[in-house]
Structure formats: structure tokens, C-alpha cells
UniProtKB/TrEMBL annotation:
Gene3D superfamilies: Alkaline Phosphatase, subunit A. This is Sulfatase N-terminal domain-containing protein. One of its GO terms (molecular function) is metal ion binding. It comes from Manganibacter manganicus. It comes from the Bacteria. Keywords: Hydrolase, Metal-binding. Pfam families: Sulfatase. Residues 5-385 form the Sulfatase N-terminal domain. PANTHER family: IDURONATE 2-SULFATASE. The keyword ATP-binding does not apply. The keyword Transport does not apply.
């Protein structure tokens, strides 16, 4: 490799961990991610730190748990004092480039109230990145491209994601079989990839660092042809769920609240006339089929990027990381989206391809050790030979990639969710809580999963006996000892990882002492 190699960090929005065909999924087709995993390492027990998009990306890009960065909702400002992956990579001589978005809500302190960056949760970009293509929620650059191609989009992206009309939908297909008004070659996924490949073409002889963000398979669950028809709904299994919505709601007040929240047509799935909670089986299967089709589209464009890197000789000097910010319930427990405590919302794909010879011994390996989204920043910095900031809550994965077993590796994962609704006070009103009481934290190992709420009843699942988390054991007398043990373990976890930037420093008569 050259003295300064390349880094390509790819994040696909809302991609479930099980949706990789090499893992045996019956509907998903991901030949390019499969090939990358065969030439790298696939982490099977990788978990995000929080949901939704902004908070999860804050954790990925700062290496911090939610309890430390505190940007808990889309729109909650991220404190300027935190360093991040882009700022640290600049110390190694890189100018990190963003294609897509970071969903960063900018710290308003010190900014004028009229600053446009304060008018939306996604208007900001994490400090340290340059933006060859910023594609926030309005997708302005892509909409401009579609308009230049002759599409009539007076309402911007709202019009771009309307289902094609007229369209003759077969009787054995659901609403989400109807494709987009544009063909696949004009999709936002294609547009983003085209732009990135043009940018790469100008950088063959100099090292680069890119954070590339696919919007898909994030809803709306509408796919361009041919991806809308790639999976037949009759071949799609129904999600695991309780026999009725009422029975599902009885598990926990937050689950009942979330099912009510997303039941309004269009709230989860833009332009859809369906109540996703009460939709019929055909429609549920079709929605899932559309999601799988969107993953296939992302995989196709991932393949284009890898093909370019191989053709230019850059593949063997580029660290490639592919993951997601959070996952998707996909109808499990009757829920859609990601704002609930089940594994389906937090369990993520992670594939890392290390081009160095030291990575040859583990190529094609699937690693079972628990890993977390906060590990990505330390891994990339470690690979670049840069120090990992003391504040980071994650650990480098390089030893695992190199075939070694790190000492004292975690035996559980920790994740959180802040579900307050600061302006609307919807969650607070529905659940009888103050905003600061609207949160929970989860500790999950190979056997049990414990969910601790600030002001609601706890949950405990025996994952060995109940992998789909259908039966809450927290209120059973015989499980009191297990609940106590996991509550204590979570408390210890939080104490160890509480904000610690300066905690290993001491001012002495000899000056500042700092322990690595």
C-alpha cells in the first residue's frame, strides 16, 4: 500500500442485520456485499447505539454512547465540544468528504437565530467534512437533476416519491408493488453513486477519505422498476408478531404508544394509504418485498463502487467499512420503523475489508463477538495509526480482523433510546411522563436482554428460549434475581463509560500527568 491509503466508510440507512443473502435470507439478494464479506470480515452480532437517524449517526461518528453525546432526537443539537471521526482523520492529513448526510443538528450556541442551519435537524453537517454532495431530507441536488431531466416536481421530493399513476397493478400484488415515477437509473441511489464515481475519477493518484451514505432502504417503501418486482410477495414470510394488536400492546406501555403513533397512514410510509399496523397479509408481504428490493438496489450500486476501485487499482489500498445507522422492525411485533426496544431495530450489518496482508488470515470469516457502532471510529483511526480519543466509548476491531482475540472483550452490548417529543409533547402526554423521563437503556448478552426505563416498568427477555422477545419476564417473582443482576450490570456499565475525557488526568507539582 501507499504511505497514506484510502478509507471508504459506507452507511446504508435502516438496513437490518439479517438482510444479507450470504446469511441465508430467503428473499434478499446481495451478491456484492456477499463478495465483500468473503474478502473481508462479517460481524454477526453488531448493534447500533440508539435510534432514530440523527442520534445513531452521532454515536457512529463520535464514538460516544447516547448518554455521553446527548443528541437524543432528530433535532437535538450535538454539542460542539465533541470531536468526531472527520476531525480526527484531518489530523492524519485527510480531508474527509461526505456524500449523503450526517443528520447533524448543529449546536445553536454562538450562532445567530436567523442562521438557516438552525431551521432543520438535517441542515447541518458534522464538523470536519467537506461536502461534494450533501443530500439532506429535501434531496435538493437530486430533485434538481430530475427536474433537468424533464420531471415535473413542484413539491420537490414529495412529488418524486409519489407512486406511478396510472399503473395497472395485478390483483396478487399489494400497493407497494407500484413503482416510482422514475426508472432505476434516475433514482437517488443511482444519482449519489454516479456523483461519487465522478469524484473518485479525479483522485486516483492521491489518498482520500470518503463517508458515503445510502438513503435506502429507508422508507418510503417504493422502489423503481425492476426492483419493485424483484421479490414476489407470496414468497415472503409474515413477520413474527402477537396474534392481535391488542395482545401486542399489552407487553409494555411504550409498545402500545408506538403502535398507535405509526398507525396513521403515511406517517411511517410516505404516500401510502395503508395503516401499516392493521394492513392485510398481502400488503404486509408486499411492503417487506419492497424493502428487500430496495436493498438489492443498494447492493447493485455498492457493486459499481467496488468494481471501480478494482479497475483503478485502489481496492487493495482502501479500507472498506459497510454498515447501517439503525435497523427496521419490518412488521415484527406489528411495528414498522426503528423506535422501539426490540433487536430488529438495533441489530445491524457490519462488513469490513482490510486490504493489508495481515487481514488475509481472516478473509471470509464471520465473527460472533459482540460489537457496537461506537467501535467504528476507533477502528478506522487505529487502522490509520491515529490515537483514539480518550472520550470514545468504543474499541478498535483490528485485533478481531487480524485473527486475534482481544483481552477483556465485552460479553454484552449496550444501547439506548430517547423517545421524548420536545415540541409536540406527544409521548409525554400519552405516557404521563416528563420529557426527561422518556428514555430507556438496554443491556443484552447471549442469554438475556434487560430494558430499563427511567419511569416505566422494566422488561426482561430470555433470548435462548424466546429469541423474538414475545414474553416479558421482568415481573415474574422467580426472575427477580436475574432482573437485579442485569440492572446492576447496566449500572456498572454506565458508571464505567460516563463522560471521561479528562478523568485520567491529574494536575501535580510536576505538571499535568496523563495515563493512556
Amino acid at each position: 500500500m501507499t504511505e497514506r491509503p484510502n478509507v471508504l466508510f459506507i452507511c446504508a440507512d435502516q438496513w437490518r442485520a439479517d438482510c444479507i443473502s450470504t446469511l441465508g435470507h430467503p428473499n434478499v439478494r446481495t451478491p456484492n456485499l456477499d463478495a465483500l464479506a468473503a474478502d473481508g470480515v462479517l460481524f454477526r452480532n453488531h448493534f447500533g447505539q440508539c435510534t432514530p437517524c440523527g442520534p445513531s449517526r452521532a454515536s457512529v461518528l463520535t464514538g460516544l454512547y447516547l448518554m455521553n453525546h446527548r443528541s437524543g432526537r432528530n433535532g437535538t443539537p450535538l454539542d460542539d465540544r465533541h470531536t468526531n471521526l472527520a476531525l480526527e482523520a484531518r489530523k492524519a492529513g485527510y480531508e474527509p468528504a461526505l456524500f449523503g448526510y450526517t443528520d447533524t443538528s448543529i449546536d445553536p450556541r454562538g450562532r445567530h437565530p436567523n442562521d438557516p442551519v438552525l431551521t432543520g435537524y438535517d441542515r447541518g453537517v458534522l464538523p470536519g467534512f467537506v461536502t461534494p454532495l450533501h443530500l439532506p431530507d429535501d434531496m435538493g441536488a437530486w430533485i434538481a437533476d430530475l427536474t433537468a431531466r424533464g420531471y415535473n416536481l413542484p413539491n420537490g421530493r414529495h412529488d418524486a416519491f409519489r407512486p406511478r399513476q396510472p399503473f395497472d397493478k395485478p390483483a396478487d400484488r399489494g400497493f407497494r408493488y407500484i413503482p416510482t415515477i422514475f426508472p432505476a437509473e434516475h433514482s437517488e441511489t443511482a444519482f449519489l453513486t454516479d456523483s461519487f464515481l465522478k469524484w473518485l475519477a479525479e483522485r486516483r493518484d492521491r489518498p482520500w477519505f470518503a463517508h458515503f451514505v445510502f438513503y435506502r432502504p429507508h422508507p418510503p417503501l417504493i422502489a423503481p422498476e425492476p426492483y419493485n418486482a424483484m421479490v414476489d410477495p407470496k414468497d415472503v414470510a409474515l413477520p413474527v408478531r402477537a396474534a392481535s394488536v391488542g395482545e401486542e400492546k399489552s407487553q409494555h406501555p411504550l409498545l402500545a404508544y408506538e403502535l398507535d403513533r405509526i398507525s396513521e397512514p403515511g406517517r411511517y410510509d410516505e404516500h401510502s394509504p395503508l395503516d401499516p399496523v392493521l394492513a392485510g397479509d398481502l400488503e404486509i408481504r408486499q411492503m417487506r418485498a419492497a424493502y428487500f428490493g430496495l436493498i438489492a438496489e443498494v447492493d447493485h450500486h455498492l457493486g459499481r463502487i467496488i468494481k471501480h476501485l478494482k479497475a483503478t487499482g485502489e481496492y487493495d489500498r482502501t479500507l472498506i467499512v459497510v454498515t447501517s445507522d439503525h435497523a427496521e422492525m419490518l412488521g415484527g411485533h406489528h411495528v414498522w420503523g426503528k423506535e422501539i426496544y426490540f433487536d430488529q431495530a438495533f441489530h445491524l450489518p457490519l462488513v469490513i475489508r482490510d486490504p493489508r496482508r495481515v487481514g488475509d488470515t481472516t478473509r471470509g470469516r464471520q465473527i460472533e463477538d459482540f460489537t457496537e457502532a461506537v467501535d467504528i471510529m476507533p477502528t478506522i483511526l487505529d487502522w490509520l495509526g491515529q490515537p483514539v480519543p480518550r472520550a470514545c466509548d468504543g474499541r478498535s476491531l483490528l485485533e478481531l480482523i487480524e485473527g486475534q482475540q482481544p483481552t477483556d472483550w465485552r460479553d454484552a452490548v449496550f444501547f439506548e433510546h430517547d423517545f421524548r417529543t420536545v415540541k409536540a409533547q406527544r409521548a409525554e402526554g400519552a405516557l404521563g411522563l416528563s420529557s426527561d423521563e422518556c428514555s430507556y437503556a438496554v443491556i443484552r448478552d447471549a442469554r438475556y436482554k434487560y430494558v430499563h426505563f427511567a419511569a416505566l416498568p422494566p422488561l426482561l427477555f430470555d433470548l435462548a428460549e424466546d429469541p423474538h422477545e414475545m414474553n416479558n419476564l421482568a415481573d415474574r417473582a422467580e426472575m427477580a434475581g436475574t432482573v437485579l443482576r442485569y440492572a446492576q450490570k447496566m449500572l456498572s456499565w454506565r458508571l464505567i463509560h460516563a463522560e471521561r475525557s479528562l478523568t485520567n488526568m491529574q494536575l501535580t507539582s510536576d505538571g499535568v500527568f496523563s495515563r493512556p
